[in-house]
Amino acid sequence: MRRRQILPALALLPLAAPALAPKALAQGALSARDRADLQRVEAYLNGITTLRARFIQIAQNGATAQGTALIWRPGRMRFDYDPPEPLLLVANAGQFMHYDKELRQPSIVPVGSTPLGILLRERITLSGDVTVSGLQREGGFLRVTLFRTANASEGRITLVMADNPLELRQWLVVDGQGHTTRVTLSAIETGIRLERATFDFNDPRFMQGPVDNN
After folding, report:
1. Domain 20-187 is in which class?
2. DSSP-based three-state secondary structure for 180
3. CA 43 – CA 60 distance, rounded (Å)
4. Of 104, 75, 106, nearest to 12 (Cα)?
5. In a structure prediction context, what are the per-residue pLDDT tens digits for the chain, which is 214 residues long?
6. Is this model's pTM higher than 0.85 or not?
């Protein structure tokens, strides 16, 4: 079924047999412009407190889904998928929870175990425990590829940003097996008021009636 293909789409689940780990850009390969652009990206990301946007998600196999994304830095994210996808993604309290509403089955991993968690840090620094492995400019867009220095084999995330003015438009997560998931944002709003309770997760298995197996 199509929705089962979507389930691991944000590359949150732990995977065996990792692909070849990405490599860092050599410091000598960075021009003054490169360093300036990385500083701009760093400042932009750290300037985001809250964000709301529509998203379209495309998995490696071409399966698609869409919905509404919320981010409240540090540490909080919520992806509400439009029907018929019965999926919910919530990040809070150091955990990512991916929930299938039909199966009533949550999958939980630490925020720090996925490259997507880089976006939710209190302070995003594109050096040290985060490594830049790619920097490209094309067609008015800036693409920056990152991975967690201590665990490169878990995967990487590429941020695609409009360059003038700087704005996050898309990210691509490549998991440890080399599978890519693309998330494209539209109707982006930042600096908006969000409710803290939006990012709480009360396990629906304890709030719903028994499953009808007939």
Report:
1. mainly beta
2. strand
3. 31
4. 106
5. 344 444 444 544 443 334 445 566 655 577 899 999 999 999 999 999 999 999 999 988 888 999 999 999 999 999 999 998 888 999 998 898 888 888 877 888 888 888 889 999 999 999 899 999 999 999 999 999 999 998 888 889 999 999 989 999 999 999 878 889 999 999 999 999 999 999 987 655 544 444 444 4
6. no
Instruction: For residue 1, give both structure tokens.
Output: 């079924």
3-state secondary structure 102-170: CCCEEEEEEHHHCHHHHHHCCCCCCCCCEEEEEEEEECCEEEEEEEEHHHHHHEEEEEEEEECCEEEEE
CA atoms within 13 A on the CB side of 106: 14
| Tally: H helices and E strands in the chain | 2, 11
Identify the helix (H) or strand (E) that includes residue 40.
helix 32-47
**Residue 171: other Cβ atoms inside 10 A:** 24
N-to-C CA span, the chain? 20
Q: For residues 13 and 122, what is the distance between their CA atoms, to the nearest angstrom?
A: 23
Distance CA(173)–CA(169), nearest Å, equals: 14
Distance CA 114, CA 78 (A): 15
Within 8 A by CB and 6+ apart from 149, the residues are 24, 128, 129, 130, 131
Question: Could you give the CA distance from residue 49 to residue 151 in angstroms, rounded to a whole number?
Answer: 26
